[in-house]
């Protein structure tokens, strides 16, 4: 596994990014922290979600350094054990809203790469310019858009909006739906979506958070993942991030879209398998 490029960018000028991106050994990943709208501060660090994404990022570095985990479900299970252990060592009796995140993960072995996600990260494998696999979801976007529309048409109070966010996140943590998020909650259920791709069909691999995926899914800067992949390989992932931020700046003042946030943190990593030549 070779890292070809990495990009990350905060979606706000006043808050540090809650996304992480990295690679270690045979593992590569992105992490997308779910913003804590309650501003609860019961865990060490800048915020509860920052505590979680930092711990997950460091744990993935440690697991990758062992260079033996080739199944993403096993990695997610080990992460869950690590986070629960850390939470147990802290005084978490007052923790009301468990922090959660989405994770996109690639695990390479000698013949294939397994790409998998919990939450709304996107993973795309390429052979040349052709997309060979896409592991993604529009489930969370659809539910968020529905909630935004309801808040506007029903003229909901901020309290009602926050209650809805927490109710949906509890569902995601507990695996009520076919999709879930990652959390150290004692009742957490991990809905892992994964694909195993032969290295001949995965010459390059892109992993990104939903803020980066907006370039295709929402903003239509690129028609599809094939076009974005071509641009990313030739112009760099940072160029795509710049186009995302330019689009958001140009759209300021336009009617609000179907999301709570007009811009989001961005993280993406582009990989090549070292056997492709």
State the gist of this model.
This protein is an alpha+beta fold. It has helices at residues 48-66, 72-89, 139-153, 158-173, 210-217, 225-235, 237-250; strands spanning 2-9, 19-24, 27-33, 100-108, 112-118, 122-127, 130-135, 182-183, 193-198, 204-208, 266-272.
The chain-level structural class is: alpha+beta
The percentage of residues in β strands lies in 15-25%
What is the straight-line distance between the termini?
12 Å
Topology pattern, helix = H, strand = E: EEEHHEEEEHHEEEHHHE
What radius of gyration results from the CA coordinates?
Answer: 18 Å
| SS elements, strand count | 11
Care to describe what's here?
- The protein is α+β, with helices and mostly antiparallel strands.
- 36% of the residues lie in helices and 25% in strands.
- The protein is built from 7 helices and 11 strands.
- It has helices at residues 48-66, 72-89, 139-153, 158-173, 210-217, 225-235, 237-250; strands spanning 2-9, 19-24, 27-33, 100-108, 112-118, 122-127, 130-135, 182-183, 193-198, 204-208, 266-272.
- Strands 2, 3, 4, 5, 8 and 9 form a 6-stranded antiparallel sheet that branches. Strands 1-11-10-6-7 form a 5-stranded antiparallel sheet.
- Strand 6 (122-127) and strand 7 (130-135) form a beta hairpin.
- Helix 1 (48-66) crosses helix 2 and helix 6 packs across helix 7 (237-250).
- The longest helix has 19 residues, at 48-66.
- It is globular, with a radius of gyration of 18 Å.
- The protein starts with a strand and ends in a 5-residue tail after the last strand.
């Amino acid at each position: 596994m070779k890292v070809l490029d990495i990009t990350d960018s905060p979606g706000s000028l006043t808050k540090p990014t809650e996304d992480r991106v990295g690679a270690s050994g045979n593992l590569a990943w992105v992490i997308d922290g779910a913003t804590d709208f309650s501003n609860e501060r019961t865990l060490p660090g800048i915020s509860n979600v920052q505590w979680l994404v930092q711990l997950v990022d460091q744990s993935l570095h440690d697991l990758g350094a062992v260079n033996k985990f080739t199944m993403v479900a096993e990695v997610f299970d080990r992460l869950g054990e690590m986070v629960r252990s850390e939470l147990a060592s802290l005084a978490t009796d007052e923790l009301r809203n468990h922090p959660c995140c989405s994770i996109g993960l690639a695990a390479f072995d000698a013949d294939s790469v397994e790409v998998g996600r919990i939450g709304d990260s996107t993973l795309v494998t390429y052979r040349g310019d052709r997309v060979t696999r896409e592991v993604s979801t529009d489930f969370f976007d659809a539910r968020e858009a529905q909630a935004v529309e309801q808040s506007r048409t029903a003229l909901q109070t901020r309290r009602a909006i926050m209650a809805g966010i927490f109710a949906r996140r509890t569902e995601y943590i507990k695996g009520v739906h076919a999709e879930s998020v990652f959390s150290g909650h004692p009742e957490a259920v991990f809905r892992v979506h994964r694909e195993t791709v032969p290295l001949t069909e995965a010459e390059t691999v892109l992993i990104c958070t939903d803020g980066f995926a907006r370039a295709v899914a929402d903003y239509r800067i690129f028609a599809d993942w094939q076009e974005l992949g071509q641009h990313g390989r030739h112009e760099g992932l940072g160029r795509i991030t710049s186009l995302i931020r330019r689009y958001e700046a140009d759209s300021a003042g336009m009617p609000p879209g179907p999301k709570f946030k007009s811009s989001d943190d961005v993280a993406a990593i582009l990989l090549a398998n070292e056997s492709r030549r």
